[in-house]
Amino acid sequence: MSSHAGLYCASYAPPGRARAPTLVVLPGLMGDGRQLRRLLRTLSEDRHVVCVDPLGSGRSAQPPPGDPAYGWAAQVERLLRVLDALVDGPVDLLGASMGGVLAQHLLLRHPERVRSAVLAATGPAPGPRGVLLHELLAAQLRSDLPDRQLLRNVILMLFSPQFLARPGAVAMTEAMLSEQPFSRDAMLAQLGALATHTLDAELSAIDRVRAVFVGELDWLMPAGRAQALAHRVGAPCTVMEDCGHLLWVERHRLFPRLVRQALDAPLAMERAAR
User: Fold this and answer.
1) Which of 136, 171, 232, 241 has the maximal Cβ count within 10 Å?
2) CATH assignment of the domain containing 131
3) How many domains is the chain built from?
């Protein structure tokens, strides 16, 4: 565990594999490595996994709203400092939700730092529905709504009805999201950054994305937006049936297997070419 450029990093190494490839995981809004422990441990069975808490979340720095540090160019430069400190050469990349947005900006500005990328529950821009949902969440963050009720409202946005109908699912997700305190100001700053994310015209320059995944019932990032992203970057898009935004939670066994398959495919082709 370490911190670089104000970003907290949690590392997971595969047992007995000193030269395993490095996979950098970028979580989303309100997300950090503690919430993704099960996914990170699974992915680290054959990779050295580094999870970077987003700026404004978890144990990373939390500048106030309006701070230029939340601009995407500044966030990319901050992430590059982390990569410089932790790894040599290009890395594999998994960007989820808001982390997928940061991944897109990194791929556009510094494609040489990424070997292969997988994007999940993200798109080229929020879209009209996403804008309205971000505005709704921002209004709740500014209100005097108690934190517990705010989290329960967020749960409705993040998970599918089918998942929440499972016994104990609501209590489990509430415990997961409330495991550590969150800053309303930092979340507002993150939402402000997401409002500036519009890359529809530039995405065709990206050629390192191996797969895009999205939930069929994702409220925050409808499947059509993720499919548009996949089309622009020339990658296949898998729509996961009856699944909401946090598909790595709802499909905690299937999702890491699909990520591995997507990242391993180009590795197999590279080995064959040698």
Assistant:
1) 232
2) 3.40.50.1820
3) 1
